[in-house]
Amino acid sequence: MSARTDAAARLHANLEALYADTRPDRIQHDPLRFAHRYTDPRDAELSGLIAALYAFGRVDLFLPVLDRLFDIMDAHGGPRRFIDAFDADRAPRITGITYRWTRPADLAVFLGALRRVLAEHGRLEPVFGPPGPDLRDRLGLAIGALRAACVASAAELGSPVDDFSELPQGVRYLLPDPADGSACKRWNLYLRWMVRPTREGVDLALWSTLSPADLVMPLDVHVGRLSRFLGLTARTDASWRTAAEITDSLRRFDPADPVRFDFALAHHGISGACLGFKHDETCATCAIRTVCKAPNAKR
């Protein structure tokens, strides 16, 4: 066995050890918990999308905001019924749902856009188009449809614009364009939830027109950092290219389901199991310690 083959085998074994320690109880500290809140797939796919799109910044800050939002929706029949009936008269019900630069008025535009898209397609899955194009193209198709619906929604809510680019940052941030090079972390996270099998007790497998093999890693700070430590990428930018490179590296070990390692890698960082540097006590029990190239702590 060559040194390169041996290194790949050791990396694979370490990744499998980390994956084997996937802990579904960590869902309670993950935005995915909101998709698990509902048994009706129509509610689950909508709550999952909204939760994923608000999953930026600190978990302890955005989870309470989402709790308040879904409590409001549940008081009116759940996410699907709330969005199906959403209009200017119902917009005041989400007053107070603010997270960073996304304001209630921004959320109202987005919910109005979802109502329009659902009225046309019935569910969110068909918005991604039929099987065929690669994920980046299909994601661009869905985001393009929602951007157009946001422009129409803004007019309906009394704030007309001529183009999506004229909408406030709080709306635009929800709908990044993968063609611009964005890693679209929150959208790839959502697709993982909807498409991957349920075998770990984590993802939901609600959709069938995408395959787990089609997915791209949701590139957050934890996944990016650990991927560099493990040699899955040398890139440091948070771009689609970096996310695709990490996915391609993992595809060597599981071509059919390369992003199955995502939950374990992300929560390895979120939980504090990885400090981002070598630490004798913390690293001693780490599943990936024999292949990790984390730097020494700064003195």
Can you lay out the helices and strands and say which pair or pack?
Blueprint: H1 3-20, H2 41-53, H3 59-74, H4 79-84, H5 104-121, H6 135-156, H7 169-172, H8 185-195, H9 221-229, H10 240-251, H11 262-270, H12 280-283
Helix pairs in contact: 2-8, 5-6, 9-11
Describe what this molecule looks like in 3D.
By secondary structure, the protein is mostly helical. The protein has one domain (3-283). It is 47% helix and 0% strand. It contains 12 helices and no strands.
Describe, in short, the structure shown.
With 299 residues, this protein is an all-alpha fold. It contains twelve helices and no strands. It has one domain.
Give a quick set of tags describing it:
single chain; 299 residues; mainly alpha; 12 helices
Distance between the termini: 39 Å
Helicity level: 40-55%
Mean pLDDT: 93
> Order of helices and strands, N to C?
HHHHHHHHHHHH
| Tally of domains | 1
What summary fits the major beta sheet? none
Which structural class is indicated by helix and strand composition?
mainly alpha
Question: Per the principal axes of the C-alpha atoms, what is the gross shape?
Answer: globular
Give the uncertain stretches in residue-range form.
none
Number of strands: 0
**Rg over CA atoms:** 20 Å
Report the total helices: 12
Q: Strand percentage, roughly?
A: under 5%
